[in-house]
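Dear support,

I submitted the protein below through the web form. The confirmation email said the job was done, but the results page showed an empty box. After a refresh the structure appeared. I'm attaching both so you can tell me whether what I see now is the final result or a partial one.
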Amino acid sequence: MKSRRDFLQKITLSAMAFPFAHHLQGSSLSKNITVGANREEVLRVAIMGLGSYGTRVAEAMQDSTRSKLVGVISGTPSKIKDWQGKYGIPEKNCYNYENFDQIKDNPDIDAVYIITPNSLHKDQAIRVANAGKHVICEKPMALNEKEGREMVQACKKNNVKLLVGYRMRLEPNTLEIVRMREEDELGKIMFFQGLSGFRIGDPNQWRLDKDLAGGGAMMDIGIYSVNGARYMVGEDPIWVTAQETKTDPEKFKEGVDETIQFQFGFPSGAVASCLSTYNMSHLDRFFLNGQKGFAELQPATGYGPIKGRTHKGPLEKPHVTHQTVQMDEMSDMILKGKEPKLPLDGVEGTKDLIIIDAIYKAVASGRKEKIDVTF
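What the results page shows now:
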């Protein structure tokens, strides 16, 4: 999509062309859906947004033992037909952006995974929650703190879960570093470095449209260092300073950040130095320094395998597709009330938004800005 206008026009035309995607005939469930005595152990998911990452999640779910892809929501009828054929999705579980509120009447869908442009997350999540379905939302969860809080409140009001696609919080090598920190194998934490960046391609994509993305690199790739700083250090920052660099104002227009360097201070006295960019590649590294040792991940947040080392030697936990692990674990969180080692709920998503709001404020003010993630 080339612009906000094109995107919204596409949704409108698709809705007009596909108004009857939700049929009420009593067709049987797909052969991929577990039924019977074990049904309660399988989370039945509809994916909203059938782009490249939606496809990645759908493919990973084929190996999931505790979640199943059972529905789709899209503004493109041809994609819906393709997914129906590929994944055996029944017609009655197919919706467009205009009619997906009708999932409230569909007992075969437990949760909706929202994988659409950032600016759409809040309204779509609230609609899903109001329909009585659990919400899984890609990061960033919303555009700012205010939207995040509204999403959390809507899900709480409707007694449904709100989870965020923080797959790294379930990754084995990452969790091993967290274990080492918690068991004092690294000693007092002094410093964290997070480098998150790549050179972005098509200048007309939605990620470079402020109305759809809410910003630039920070909202897309920089959030990994924001979130990573929190779980690696084990604290939430209390202040931030930040500086923006823009070398291509034509590609990175007003409100779309190209590169931001930002620094955190934590209650313990630890500090962090991070970089978020759309103009430099091969930047995917976390480094944690403590008084007794260190831990490093490089790559730290890619699709895997994640590689790392510590002062004790290499990290060599086995790699399993992140999205498969995520969907299995989220199934247990939603259906069994499992508490993950590192939470990835709507409160965590909102805390990141509070911090990102403060980063943008620090860029604009040139001053150290306080951060309060009290929820």
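Response: this is the final, complete result; the empty box was a page-load delay. The CA atoms of residues 149 and 256 lie 23 Å apart.
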